[in-house]
Structures are given as C-alpha cells and as structure tokens.
Amino acid sequence: MMACSRTCSRILGLSLGTTALFAAGANMVLLFPNWDVTYLLRGLIGRHAMLGSGLWGGGLMVFTAATLISLMGWRYGCFTLKDGPFCMFDVSSFNQTQAWKYGYPFKDLHTRNYLYDRSLWNSVCLEPSKAVDWHVSFFSSLLCISLLQILLVVIHFINSFLGLFCSLCEK
Questions:
Q1: What is the pTM of this model?
Q2: Partners of residue 89 on adjacent β-strands
Q3: Which of 27-36, 79-88, 113-122, 152-161 has the highest mean pLDDT?
C-alpha cells in the first residue's frame, strides 16, 4: 500500500508541475496580445496580466497548497473578469472630436455584462484587435488550470492521508 501511495504522489507531483508550466505559459501569452511585443514595451498591458498570478501563483501553488486560494486572487479579486481587458477605446461624446485612451472600457458598464454581449467585443476595444477574445480565452485558461491544480492538491491530500493511515495499520 505504501508503494502505491508513493507512486500516486509522484504522478500527482508531476501533474502539478505540468499545470504550473501551463499556467506560467498562459500568463506569459497575456503579456503579448496578438503575439506583438510592442504593447508590453509601451506599457499597454492590463494590471491583471502584469500581476503575473499565473507565473508566481501557479508555481507557488505547487509548493504551498495552503495558500492556493488566496494567491490565485479569490481573496484579493486579482482574477475577476468583470473589468475586462485593458485596451484603447473611444472616450469622445457625440459633439466632440474623436478621443481615444487606454483603460478598462467595460469596468463601469452597469446595464449589461460584456461577457454575455458579444456585439461589444470588437466594437469597444479598438486596439489591440480582438482584445476581449484574447482576455477571455487566456484568463479562462488560467481559471481552468487553477481548478485542475486545486483538484490535484485535494487528491494528493487524500492520498497522503490514506498512505499515512494505511501505514499505521500495517504496523
């Protein structure tokens, strides 16, 4: 029974390490919208991507399961999709000249949720192109990876408990 517990721990450790690499990779991709480095160089990347929760959170999660939820932003709200992507959008009113700025155009939408209104996706964010698609895709990937990591940590906890309990019974 102990050999089985060790084997399971090895598999779970490898799985957690692999998911940490995927989380770090997804966070890195968020820094380069449309595979273009100029947005990063010009400082036009949203704060959620710049926080790098997929880099430090995903890696730290593997080593410290106890702080998993708080490090991934559930406690501090670092992983909420409600603000939307950081992009250039039109801020001019009807009677003024056209004016664009970088920011979070979906942050103060009270009447509708941009996640459910796909007509807003390409009409609000002017640059980078398809910013909402990029944002939703990779933050959803980070969320799924985090959920998988939580599941793997729970399995490891159960496996360790059973390994300890069964080894006590054998003696």
A1: 0.56
A2: 101
A3: 27-36
Integer Cα distance of 133 and 106 in angstroms: 14
The phi and psi torsions of 126 (rounded to 5 degrees) equal -85, -35
3-state secondary structure of 100: strand
Residue 157: per-residue pLDDT:
78
Is the distance from CB of 58 to CB of 146 less than 8 angstroms?
A: yes
117: amino acid identity, one letter = D
Task: Please spell the DSSP secondary structure of 13-80, one letter per residue.
Answer: HHHHHHHHHHHHHHHHHHTSGGG-THHHHTT-S-HHHHTTIIIIIHHHHHH-GGGHHHHTTTTT-TT-
Element (H, E) at 124: none
In sequence order, the β-bridge partners of residue 127 are 88
Q: At 56, give phi and psi (nearest 5°).
A: -85, -35
Q: By three-state DSSP, how is residue 120 classified?
A: helix
Counting other chains too, the contacts that 119-128 makes at CB distance below 8 Å and 24 or more residues apart are 124/87, 124/89, 125/85, 125/87, 125/88, 125/89, 126/87, 126/88, 126/89, 126/90, 126/100, 127/87, 127/88, 128/33, 128/34, 128/36, 128/39, 128/87
Interatomic CA distance for residues 14 and 18, integer angstroms: 6
Q: Angle formed by the axes of helices 2-30 and 131-170, to 10°?
A: 170
**Which residues pair with residue 100 across a beta bridge?**
90
